[in-house]
Amino acid sequence: MKLNLNTPNPLKGAKNRSCKAPFRGLGVCLIVLLNFTQLQAQDTVRYVGQTLSNVDYHHGQLSPAVGVHNIQVFRANREHPELAGGTNWTYNHAPMLAYWNNTFYLQYLSNPVGEHVAPGQTLLLTSKDGYSWSKPTVIFPPYKVPDGWKKPGRPEVAKDLYAVMHQRMGFYVAKNKRLLTLAFYGLVMGPKDDPNDGNGIGRVVREIYPDGKYGPIYFIRHNASWDQSKSVYPFYTSSNDKGFVEACDELLANPLMMQQWVEEADRNDPLITLKKDVKAFSYYYLPDNRVVGLWKHALTTISSDGGKTWQYNPLRAPGFVNSNAKIWGQKTSDGNYATVYNPSEFRWPLAVSTSKDGLNYTNLLLVNGEITAMRYGGAYKSYGPQYVRGIEEGNGTPPDGSLWVTYSMNKEDIWVSSIPMPITDEVKTHPDETFAQLPAGEELKCWNIYSPLQARAQLETIGGSKALVLRDKDKFDFAKAERIIPESKKLTVEFSIVPQQANKGVLQIEFQDAKGTPAVRLLFDSDSLFKAKVGYRDSGIQKYEAGKQYDVRIELDREKRMFTTFVNGQPKGNRLFFAPVASFRRVVFRTGGVRRFPDADTPTDQNYDLPKAGEQDDEAVFVIKSFKTSGLSSRVE
Length: 637
Known about the structure:
Layout: H1 24-40, E1 46-47, E2 69-74, E3 91-100, E4 103-111, E5 121-127, E6 137-140, E7 164-165, E8 171-173, E9 179-186, E10 202-208, E11 218-222, H2 242-252, H3 255-259, E12 282-285, E13 291-295, E14 299-303, E15 315-316, E16 327-331, E17 337-341, E18 350-355, E19 360-361, E20 365-368, E21 385-389, E22 403-409, E23 413-419, E24 432-434, E25 447-451, E26 457-462, E27 465-474, E28 480-499, E29 507-512, E30 518-524, E31 529-534, E32 537-543, E33 550-557, E34 562-567, E35 570-576, E36 584-590, E37 616-633
Parallel strand pairs: 1-19, 2-25
Antiparallel strand pairs: 2-23, 3-4, 4-5, 5-6, 7-9, 8-9, 9-10, 10-11, 12-13, 13-14, 14-15, 16-17, 17-18, 18-20, 21-22, 22-23, 24-37, 25-28, 26-27, 27-37, 28-33, 28-36, 28-37, 29-30, 29-36, 30-31, 31-32, 33-34, 34-35
């Protein structure tokens, strides 16, 4: 059944219709039920898997997608802006991503402290590989609102007021190979005002050139309530660059691009086809050339004509759990489809679901299950990895074939994630990895990485030899490297490690099940002791020294709930698991302890800053040279 968007809801008013008449009334009821059944059977995106996230854990108890690398690209710092690319603004959010000219481009909007609290600006970072990023550059600066301006429906009169920025679209690659970047200047006149009420200033655009420089800023669309004679920037049609004007015209003629503008645009803008209260549009093409549309709250509908019309009013995708954070969908390089979103009523964890046909999503796997401390309080700063965006169709394809996404953490720091193909949580063979001997570029292929700017988890060459190195000087975060292994009931893990110090920092090594429940924890502690967690207490294994290599072997038996540790070939005794597990699937190296704040009962708004929020610790470094596992499969009884 194809519905026109003006088709009345077949259930509207149905409760007032009588079903008592044996024929006419029964016929009406049957028609209503038939229409309802057809609506329910509508060809739509749906989640048919059985896995759900548990919000009591930051990772949702989800099994990780193998090989995901989470990389922090910007870290806010009010006290030391030199550590944050020269900016001390601490509200940073809504990042967008493109890949063009063999380069990643990432833009995000920023305010000094909180959401919709002026002034606002938009910044841009670039990277050649997705791991090392430039310092942020302001591409759309704060915009001064003319004194005396009044916004329709608001009593305030502008005086020394600046606009705020809010946009759902960041980039557009035109057919003539021009790269445009866009942003929106909105007006917040006072408390509870909305910059996306259709009464803002307008949308701006500029070109990014292949040499990394930027063209002039132009308006590409004004809000109707705005007096264009007061605009600081000219209209794009005044540009003498015909190629730039052509690219802008092409953008304005694309219904799918325009649909991204619905929130900020005039409520009756003729360029926007679906004029509904929907937010953060994402889309992808199905094999039959239909378009799937996705919005916040996992609302969805389908278009058969490239976004000119939509088959039915957006409805919540059956089975999907998603609140008011964004959801991203796209076709992946292996010919399948993926949606990336927060599968809860909160903004954690960040997860990915996959589909073979673009309509039926069958699984739910972890992308990022960490929440660092929110160092700076501010208006509407939500906890968690959120507002995820990928690379829109037409805006470039990274050569590694991975699914790249960007998001903010706590509306404070900016991250990217690389999700390799195929997306899976299964590893079929046990690893035997000496990093110095692995092919270049393949060393961390099967490792899951969580790497903040001040707590790096990365491959390095130390002493002429490659190794997995965890560095940590972040007072509020940690580095983490995690290896998924075949599910095993009996497991032997061997690794060679060189702590570069013995009097600071900590390295925890956990042996976990698929849901992230640890049974055993070893740790190199800051008191020069190598320890194991046994119940409430930590049990000393032996002293360790800075710069010395330790070859550790641990044998775990889940039936006996016992483990035996060996260091440099010497047995160090048997100990009990501190928690039971059914099997082992994950080994985690982490330069910090487990975090449980925030939780589902944490107050929504944090109105305080953490002490010494901009300071660093002395750096601790742990060098992992090799890693190997072997074991008895959990499938063998």
